[in-house]
Design a protein that fits this description.
By secondary structure, the chain is mainly alpha-helical. It contains 23 helices and two strands. The longest helix has 47 residues.
């Protein structure tokens, strides 16, 4: 407890911090991965005119994210929640002289405001029903509340998570967030901001466990987002856009785990994802740095000879996100798939399809960037060189974490003790008690599922290799696409649909209100009062003629009127 912040009647909000196993995991990831991104940024932003401004924003971003996960009540968490939203706006639009980047920053800010409204309404409902905003108080009182109340609260909180963690339908801001410098993309996608929604639902595990409807909603939205974003990534040619849609898809898998009640599995995948996604983004930044700003994979190719460290570390990241053992992503993704199968084989099938699509588009990215013929211009290739140590050392560190990070959660079926599960058990103990027994797979079934997943993964890798390395296929220009490929390349036209159904009607309504309410109504009334003053002055100034006889005449008239009024009265 630091100090009493707001005290009014029976409302008391303290500025207080809560450090428990769940917070500790996030603190390690935010500060650990954030530190490596800071080191990387020193080399990446070295020649930028806004170097000092960039680091002030970056540090403020980390500060608010730390506040978000350390707050002991919803109000302190909300300060951090809004703070990371502000910093994302500042960093996405960091190069503000480019109007497209400003538009992307505005989009992120406005999209998050929609989600934040849901979160704020949920916090209001929590106080109305529990008369407290402390996490521990609310969790202890939640079992006595009605299911309908808890469902309303948890759905509103989930709307906030959908905005911050880019789930359908509030996901469209995240791919556009690539407008910011690459270290920003890594920080947003790996260590901060987008994991805020995961943290918030995990922190409210008791409320969600008591609301089966909300749990199913989280599961369905997460599963749909994982598959939806993975299909879009198949046809993207901007190296950072592919990784952006990959993030949306991986976040979907995390929400799937949370919706299944496998809270530890969701946090586990969040942790491993922080390692390999930061590695992939920073690796992409190294490629972009070496190619003088080029981001289109169709203009890359054959770079593994020129960028050996970048290639080696990037390969580790691709293997990790693809779920190849013993890389970090294998253990966390396998645990989510196992929980999905225990819940429903159909859910497992859809999640597996999303995972296999991830394998394909990530190896597509790897092959188009580092294999085949060199497609960059001679001018660019004449200046190509491996990135400086300030960039490659963080890549190597993240590569090591992506290789060994999964061992914190090795399941018993593979001879491990699942240390992470034991560590987080105090946080999720009440939810585990309330939910009752979970369906657990026997070892033979788990081994079979692992073999099936790894088998399909290897086949997909081979298919990508044949297409992009053996046959040297290079994606055609967007204008030449047709059919499903064109739909995927244009991201299902979701932005265009939102623009037609929401943005344009709002602009039309704004114009109508501007003309008929603002100008013809409010402005008209205000202008009447404004114009009446000079017009009245023109009339009254005629009484000041300067003629003494005229003044005496008015004085006599005034006296006569006063005497008459007095006599009559």
């Amino acid at each position: 407890h630091l100090f009493s912040w707001i005290k009014a009647g029976n409302f008391d909000a303290s500025m207080a911090l809560l450090i428990d196993p769940l917070t500790s995991i996030f603190l390690l990831i935010i500060t650990g991965v954030g530190f490596l991104i800071h080191v990387y940024s020193i080399g990446y932003m070295h020649d930028d005119a806004g170097f000092n401004r960039f680091f002030s924003y970056l540090n403020l971003f980390v500060f608010f994210m730390l506040l978000l996960v350390m707050g002991s009540n919803y109000l302190v968490m909300f300060i951090g929640w809004e703070g990371v939203g502000l910093c994302s706006y500042l960093l996405i639009g960091f190069w503000f002289k480019n109007q497209a980047y400003n538009d992307a920053a505005n989009k992120a800010f406005i999209m998050n405001r929609i989600g934040d409204l849901g979160l704020l309404l949920g916090i209001f409902l929590i106080f109305i029903n529990f008369r407290s905003l402390n996490f521990t108080d609310v969790a202890s009182m939640a079992p006595a509340a009605s299911t309908g109340t808890l469902t309303t609260i948890t759905i509103l909180l989930f709307i906030g998570a959908m905005g911050k963690s880019a789930q359908i339908p509030l996901y469209t801001w995240l791919p556009d967030a690539m407008a910011g410098p690459t270290p920003v993309s890594a920080l947003i996608h790996a260590a901060t901001m987008v994991t805020a929604g995961i943290y918030m639902i995990a922190r409210n595990n008791v409320l969600y466990t008591l609301s089966p409807i909300s749990m199913n909603l989280v599961m369905i939205v997460g599963l749909a987002t994982a598959l939806f974003a993975a299909t879009i990534a198949l046809k993207q040619n901007d190296i950072k856009k592919v990784l952006a849609y990959s993030t949306v898809s991986q976040l979907g898998l995390m929400f799937l785990a949370l919706g299944l009640g496998a809270f530890t599995a969701g946090i586990f995948h969040m942790a491993t994802h922080a390692f390999f996604k930061a590695l992939l983004f920073l690796g992409a930044g190294s490629v972009i740095h070496a190619l003088s700003g080029e981001q289109d994979m169709r203009s890359m190719g054959g770079l593994r000879k020129y960028l050996p460290v970048t290639f080696a570390t990037f390969l580790i990241g691709v293997l990790a996100i693809s779920g190849i053992p013993p890389f970090a992503g294998f253990f966390s993704k396998d645990e989510i798939l196992a929980n999905a199968y225990a819940h429903n084989p159909i859910v497992w099938g859809v999640a597996l399809l999303a995972s296999l699509l991830t394998v394909f588009y990530m190896f597509r990215l790897l092959y188009l960037t580092f294999f085949g013929d060199v497609r960059a211009s001679q001018h660019v290739m004449s200046h190509i060189h491996e990135s400086p140590k300030s960039i490659t050392v963080p890549l190597i560190c993240l590569g090591v974490l992506s290789l060994v990070g999964g061992f914190i959660g090795v399941p018993e079926v593979l001879g491990g003790s699942h240390w992470l599960n034991e560590y987080l058990s105090p946080v999720f103990a009440q939810a585990a008690t309330l939910s009752g027994s979970h369906h657990h797979l026997d070892h033979s079934t788990e081994y079979t599922l692992m073999a099936v997943v790894i088998g399909f993964t290897v086949l997909v890798i081979i298919a990508a290799y044949v297409k992009y390395v053996k046959r040297k296929h290079v994606p055609v220009a967007d204008a030449q696409l047709s059919g499903p490929s064109k739909i995927l390349a244009n991201k299902y036209y979701i932005d265009e649909i939102y623009n037609t159904l929401i943005v344009k009607p709002l602009y039309w309504l704004s114009n109508v209100l501007d003309v008929f309410v603002e100008r013809m109504g409010i402005d008209f009334i205000v202008n009447i009062f404004g114009s009446s003053v000079p017009e009245g002055g023109k009339i009254t100034r005629l009484t000041q003629s300067g003629s003494i006889g005229y003044y005496i005449f008015l004085m006599v008239i005034g006296i006569v009127l006063i005497v008459t009024y007095t006599l009559i009265g």
